[in-house]
């Protein structure tokens, strides 16, 4: 394992999680209208989740002899719900990519590889959820595709 490379990846992931924590929190503040009832808590929950990931990253960085960054990655703002979700989707994808890089960089370090795999899996779930909220995975279900089992009459 190239320790310097892994430290760079961990610090890039930390930047992304800081940005994610702030961006989701900002979206929880800015969301208005009837959707606010659902989305404010949704955004806040994701913000807290990102902060928890930041805690783990910072601890791993120090364990490897590095210094955790205090600079977040680019934060994007919007007041439009759909645009907020689009921006969050982009950030989830960026996070997924950095954790996938971490998996490759730690191929010979079982525990750190497991850590990156777990983070990647979580980001994959977040990405897939936001994709559905944006209706990007809407299926076209026709009547013909539904096969109903006939109930036998007694
Ligand atoms: Fe995250
Ligand atoms: Fe995420």
Number of strands: 0
Counting H and I runs of at least 4 residues, what is the number of helices? 4
Count of separate structural domains: 1
What is the CA-based Rg, rounded? Answer: 20 Å
Ligands, deduplicated: fe (ii) ion
Share of helical residues: 55-70%
The quaternary organization reads as: single chain
| β-strand amount | under 5%
Which features characterize this protein?
Ferritin; flat; binds fe (ii) ion; 154 residues; mainly alpha; 68% helix
Secondary structure topology:
Elements: H1 3-30, H2 36-63, H3 81-105, H4 110-133
Helix pairs in contact: 1-2, 1-3, 3-4
One fe (ii) ion binds near residues 20, 53 and 123.
Q: Could you explain how this protein is built, in words?
A:
With 154 residues, this protein is an all-alpha fold. It has a single domain, classed as Ferritin, core subunit, four-helix bundle (Ferritin), CATH 1.20.1260. It contains four helices and no strands. α1 runs antiparallel to α2, α1 (3-30) packs antiparallel against α3 (81-105) and α3 (81-105) packs antiparallel against α4 (110-133). The longest helix has 28 residues, at 3-30. The mean pLDDT is 94. One fe (ii) ion binds at residues 17, 20, 50, 53, 95, 123.
Short description:
This protein is an all-alpha fold and 154 residues long. It has helices at 3-30, 36-63, 81-105, 110-133. The protein has a single domain, classed as Up-down Bundle (Ferritin), CATH 1.20.1260.10.
